[in-house]
Amino acid sequence: MDCSLDMNYNLTDGRRASRPEPAGGPEDMTGRDRLLDEIGALEFKLLASGLPEQTSSLLDYDLTLQQLRVFAFILTRGQMPIGTVADALGIRPNVATGIVQRLVERGLIERREDPDDRRIRLLTVTDRGLALVDELSGIVLAKGRELLDRLRDDQLRQLRDIFLAMGPAQSEPGPSEAEAGRA
Predict the structure, then answer these.
(1) Three-state SS string across 109-145, please?
(2) Helix, strand or coil for residue 128?
(3) With CB atoms 3.0 to 4.6 Å apart as the test, which of 41, 54, 56, 155 could cross-link to 151 if both were Cys?
(4) Quick one: which of 144, 146, 150, 173 has its CA closest to 161?
(5) CA dihedral of residues 88, 91, 92, 97 (deg, nearest 10)
(6) Contact indicator for 132, 108 with CB cutoff of 8 Å
């Protein structure tokens, strides 16, 4: 089986990666659907190009995918009880407890007493966990900078504007909006 990547297939078994085919088959795909598939595949290729550097740091911490999911969830949402993590990630509480215990043993998260309810233990990322994030961020940013350095200034401005358009709504105008207002 060919495991190479193209814009319509994943790396593991050749099935469509982006979304189910339209009811009438691939011929019913709109131009927008094909464009979204192509962009998704290109995005995946860019992300995958940095995986060797990123995964070497993760291997040093001996993390499974489930442990990484739990760690990332706590990192991005702040301290919380283990039940919240289990519910949000769709895993059984006893499974979440085992995953958390291994993250605690690796020094990436810790359990703290909830000051409002001493019966509840809150999970929070440790300094060692933040150091892992800093290390991975440095690798990702360096790879991203390497890729961005290939673009012309006008392409960089376009890319910035696209990221701004895709991001969450902002209360203050971003750089491109401020520039447009002055024009």
Answers:
(1) EEEEEECCEEEEEEEEECHHHHHHHHHHHHHHHHHHH
(2) helix
(3) 155
(4) 173
(5) -90
(6) yes
Looking up tokens 């769709």 gives: 90
Domain 59-131 falls in which CATH fold? Arc Repressor Mutant, subunit A (1.10.10)
Helix H or strand E segment including 151:
none
**Secondary structure of residue 17 in the 3-state scheme:** coil
Burial class (CB in 10 A: 0-12, 13-18, 19+), 57: middle
Residue 25 pLDDT class (50, 70, 90 cuts): low
Where do the structural domains in the chain lie, given as residue ranges?
1-49, 59-131
Tens of pLDDT, residue by residue over 128-173, are 999 989 988 888 888 888 889 999 999 999 999 998 999 876 554 5
pTM over 0.70: no
At 175, which amino acid appears?
Answer: P
